[in-house]
Amino acid sequence: NYAIFAGGRSSDHEENIVDIFNVETGLWSKSSLSAPRSQLAACVDLRKLRAYFAGGLSSDKPSGIVDVFDHQNISFSNNFELAVPRYSLSCITHDEFVYFAGGISSNGPSSILEIFNSNNYSWVVLQLSSARHSISAVLVGATIYFAGGSLSIDSNKALKLPAPNPLAPIR
């Protein structure tokens, strides 16, 4: 029932402002992230009615902060952080798991895939097939696919991955 717009960058600094639109009433309210950030990842867990806002760029440094919006309490909390701070990462949920993939850490593009279990608050850290940022994530059936992204921070040197043939069967 809410549309949430969080963080971002104004002309010279990151923002922590959160604008919340209540679709049912048509009213806007404001909140704030625990720290100003831009280039953060956002995803929604429809089962638990939570939205996750992870990582981002804060004061020109990668952030590991994960803010959680709880739909039932209409409030934000900051209960945990990513193991590897990064920005331009991807986020997607499936069942009780929240996946934080790739991004740019202080060492450059990252291959880290952090999986958060929202039932028992535990973490698993895996590796993607390659380090990249600005990844797309999609859930098809019970399978999550991470595709595309950039292998380089310098967009002029980024490797463009070929698009699949839309007429070919998906395997």
Topology:
Elements: E1 2-6, E2 17-22, E3 28-32, E4 41-45, E5 50-54, E6 57-58, E7 61-62, E8 65-70, E9 75-81, E10 90-94, E11 97-101, E12 104-105, E13 108-109, E14 112-117, E15 122-127, E16 136-140, E17 143-147
Antiparallel strand pairs: 1-2, 2-3, 4-5, 5-8, 6-7, 8-9, 10-11, 11-14, 12-13, 14-15, 16-17
How much of the sequence lies in strands comes to: over 45%
Number of strands: 17
Task: Quote the average pLDDT.
Answer: 86
- Biggest sheet, strands in spatial order? 4-5-8-9
**What's the helix-strand series?**
EEEEEEEEEEEEEEEEE
Features:
171 residues, mainly beta, 17 strands, 0% helix, disordered C terminus
Overview of the structural elements:
The model is unreliable at 155-171 (pLDDT under 50). By secondary structure, this protein is mainly beta. The protein is globular and about 45 Å long. The protein has no helices and 17 strands. The strands form 6 sheets. A 4-stranded antiparallel beta sheet has the order 4-5-8-9, with no helix packed on it.
